[in-house]
UniProtKB/TrEMBL annotation:
Pfam families: MerR, MerR-DNA-bind. One of its GO terms (molecular function) is DNA-binding transcription factor activity. It is found in: Cytoplasm. This is Cu(I)-responsive transcriptional regulator. The keyword Transmembrane helix does not apply. InterPro entries: CueR, DNA-bd_dom_put_sf, MerR-type_HTH_dom, MerR_fam, Tscrpt_reg_MerR_DNA-bd. GO terms for biological process: positive regulation of DNA-templated transcription. Keywords: Cytoplasm, DNA-binding, Transcription, Transcription regulation. Residues 1-69 form the HTH merR-type domain. GO terms for cellular component: cytoplasm.
Length: 151
């Protein structure tokens, strides 16, 4: 099959297939007499593996490791689990950062009049450059208030 067909069958764009070849994530495809790339079912299977790994948020270097482990019939599943656990920890960190950003923006939006006045705490905070600190302060205030209410 040609690159367009491989792209359709795998869910990976032709551009990304070429990129994966250029960084040696996948083997360079064979060529037809006309010079077109030719892919087989095994190639499509590898591309689907990469696509699913990307969908789960794995970075390229971890995908490279996962591919090597997938191909190794004598692998220890502990290695795969360690890679997954590391990725989960990274996702948890990113989620915490996103929640902090959302909380900061929500706090600022609550304090913005949203009318015809030019003053805007959202723009003021962005210009100051220390936005996430507000969310931490607000969160601490809420925790303190909750703890005091429980006493």
């Amino acid at each position: 099959m040609n690159i367009g067909q491989a792209a359709s069958a795998s869910g990976v764009s032709a551009k990304m297939i070429r990129y994966y070849e250029s960084i040696d994530l996948i083997q360079v495809a064979g060529r037809s007499e006309g010079g077109y790339r030719i892919y087989g079912q095994d190639d499509v299977h590898v591309l689907r593996f990469i696509h699913q790994s990307r969908t789960l948020g794995f970075p390229i270097e971890q995908i490279r490791l996962l591919l090597a482990l997938w191909r190794d019939q004598h692998r220890a599943s502990a290695q795969v689990k360690a890679i997954a656990a590391q990725h989960i920890a990274e996702l948890d960190t990113r989620i915490a950062e996103l929640v902090e950003m959302r909380d900061t923006l929500a706090h600022l939006a609550r304090h913005c009049a949203g009318d015809q006045r030019p003053s805007c705490p959202i723009l003021d905070e962005i210009a100051r450059g220390d936005g996430p600190k507000l969310a931490r302060r607000e969160s601490r205030k809420l925790k303190t208030a909750t703890l005091q209410a429980d006493d």
